Amino acid sequence: MSNPMISARRSLSALVGLPVLLVALVAVGAPAQQPNERVTVVVGAPGEHKVALGLPKPIGGAGAATEFYDVLRRDLELSGFVTLLDPAAQVEPVGTGIRPGQFRFEDWAVLGTPALAKTLLQSRDGGQLYAEVWTYDVNGRNRLGARSFSAGGEDARMMAHKVASEIILRLTGKPGPFNTRFAVAGNFTGNKEIYTVDFDGYRLTPVTRTGSINIQPAWSPDAKKIAYTGYAAGNPDLYVADLSGGKITRLSARAGINTGAAWHPGRGVIALTLSMGGESDVFTIDANTGRQLARITDTNGIDVSPAWSPDGSQLAFVSERSGSPQIYVSSADGSNARRVTFHGNYNQDPAWHPDGDKLAFVGREGNFDIFVVNTDGTGLTRLTQGKGDNEDPSWSPDGNYVAFSSNRTGATHIWMSTLDGKHQAQLTRGKGGYTNPDWSPTLPW
Predict the structure, then answer these.
(1) Which among 68, 188, 233, 392 is least buried, having the fewest CB atoms inside 10 angstroms?
(2) pTM to 2 decimals?
(3) pLDDT in tens, 59-83
(4) Phi and psi at residue 252, to the nearest 5°
(5) Can you name the residues that pair with 74 across neighbouring β-strands?
(6) Strands 38-43 and 303-308, how do they pair?
(7) Please, are residues 405 and 362 in contact by the beta-carbon 8 Å criterion?
(8) Which residue, 148, 150, 134, 121, is CA-closest to 53?
(9) Domains of the chain in sequence order
(10) Angstrom distance (rounded) from CA 316 to CA 305
């Protein structure tokens, strides 16, 4: 008998030739649980290579099936991991079953589709939605995984996000970014207010309603709070909004600016820019009381926009100490500062990759564009070029994507790029006005 690990590896890798080998443990939900089964799937980074995926419409007859299917398809397309087969091209009859033995792998192999995801969506008693998703390696005739979900009858969108995440997990070994949100500054009411919005641009939710200017939101590591700079009192002060109770606290109201909050990943500390002495420098304050803890920078020229490394041992920031705005990295206390950007004469807004080895930042060469550089100053990559202004980079929790604001369509929206820049997608819709996106940590479903 053939080894399912070897056959799955050969069948998918032969068709798509992807470079990174990942082993995924099949975790089956309610359907046919087989916890000891293992399969091997070969995939690369999103945007680098895409796997052709068959995704027939869900069976089960739920009234929310159209919305569910539309959201599911968009999530998967946004991921950059797959290319979806046109449903009109499928060979098997509509409504064919989703479990092993209920359909023919040959009907998908003939289309050159190495991966297949089949879904069921039902409305059950009590107004609940029930979904199943089964993911397959077509040429290896192997099941990669199966899982079931339940949710309220109005939660078809959330159900689709869960199913999309499960499919990406089975194909790549890691779930998709669909259970995340953005904190943004949005100009939707004539004033800049702070909002949160789902990964795919839906469920816009106000955090502030001050009728003034509010900018630069930053998620706390536990995703329970958002710090931002607001002008409600007439000065750029630092506020913290508690998302669970709605309470907003003015944390730093020192003379001059109180901007660019960055939460320490493991301690109750915020780094920010203050200008109490005239010039802007980086300081740290207690995240609960606002008490000043330390002055991090003290050089000629401004120092702004701090960003903590993922382990909290280093800070990236922008400094003019060399004559123009450039990105520097120092120890957490400001010592051992070194310059890491040397291309161009205007670089700002550093953002650490979750692995701690790269920084995304904004460089100005006519327009503003997004770049990525290794923290030792090597390996510069340009993600955007010739497509309007692109600013405010923020990494996804898995490190596969950089989100940013862009006015390339005329209105300012949140966009997302893979690390090679080859797959870029607009996330928010409508009239625009989205700026300063900050990507949340992974949220509980």
Answers:
(1) 233
(2) 0.89
(3) 999 899 999 999 999 999 999 999 9
(4) -140, 120
(5) none
(6) unpaired
(7) no
(8) 134
(9) 4-172 (3.40.50.10070), 181-439 (2.120.10.30)
(10) 8
